[in-house]
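Hi support team,

I'm filing this because I wasn't sure whether my run with G4F finished correctly. The job status page said complete, but I'd like someone to confirm that the output block is well-formed before I use it downstream. Pasting the exact inputs I used:
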Amino acid sequence: MVKAKSALITGITGQDGSYLAEFLLTKNYTVHGLIRRSSSFNTERIDHLYQDPHAHDPRLILHYGDLNDPSSLRRILDQTQPDEIYNLGAQSHVRVSFDMPLYTCDTDGLGTVRLLEAVRDFESYTRRRIRFYQASSSEMYGKVVETPQKETTPFYPRSPYACAKVFSHWITVNYRESYGLHASNGILFNHESPRRGETFVTRKITRAVGRIHHGLQKKVFLGNLEAKRDWGFAGDYVQAMWLMLQQDEADDYVVATGKTYSVRQFLEEAFTAAGLNWQDHVEIDPRYFRPAEVDLLLGDPAKAREKLGWEPTVGFKELVRMMVEHDMELAAREKTLVDAGHQMPANCGHDQ
Ligand code: NAP
Ligand code: G4F
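And here is everything the job wrote out:
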């Protein structure tokens, strides 16, 4: 009988980590997740995988650790002995990386080499092999030197976040070439979902649409509406991660839809879906401008299509509709609570 595989996911509490955990469980993996200790609950996106303690799926196991704590990484590798590692953990907000450059570089840059070192040592003393996935980003193309962007397009990072991701990208290539690690980079373009963090622009917009529709909010404050992004659906993108680790040879792949839209177009689509006019509700707040902006991202996913057989299944309009529908329902539930006398949760103005 073939032994079921096991995987370790850093960043399992994030958008991608939750979709990937679900996907790997359907593939019969044992899934280990690294989670950080937090003073408030941070497992909301994976709680449904735990719901009933009696039906608790023992194939999902969480471990406390941190990419900034190398001893925790080594201990978790020893305990879990994974066949595959997906390194999704990161301070993933570009705007915030300008406020916290050292922390971002430590986690998103050095965190990767800490994990790779742990893998290298683990392989040398156990003689077992681990396949490694690194969450690289289209943000690395920054001030783009070529459009569409592909695997061979040079990087021109425009933020501390992107600089850290470029470091992680190349250190992953370096460990592959130096030590023969099966280590791949997925250069993923923006991908969204109803589980997207609420401070990223797409979710900030769809949350606002839901709340405005239900009378819980009047305005949404945004920055640069002209930036263009190649937006796909996160559920599709985690499948590309998995496909990369099923290849005999490790390699680097662009994962994108091959279409680009502006923030303004996203706004129009989202407000129209709720029968609203975005001009009535949007105000520009310079607080959301970035010291250096990435104006245009458009990926060429030809290599992923040809070598991995990967295709996106959700287009732009469908993605926007999915997010708006979800956030309309969420706002309806909030409205019920507000009507019953509960307070709307405040974000203290830190909605980057
Ligand atoms: P996300 O929702 O922000 O999730 C980030 C995850 O990283 C969370 O689970 C977070 O834990 C964890 N984390 C943060 N700092 C950590 C640390 N020091 N040690 C361990 N874990 C830590 O991000 P995402 O959208 O799922 O993205 C997943 C990865 O892909 C990230 O590396 C991101 O940079 C990259 N990426 C994302 C996109 C995109 O469009 N979504 C595109 C390209 C690349 P807490 O829950 O405790 O905060
Ligand atoms: O949604 P965003 O914050 O995503 P961004 O900066 O493209 O980064 C995301 O995608 C990357 C892949 O390319 C990931 F690596 C990264 O981890 C993250 O997931 O901003 C998108 C655009 C930007 O041009 C920004 O200036 O929207 C513009 N924008 C306009 N108003 C805003 C806002 N962004 C945010 N977050 N908040 C605003 O109010």
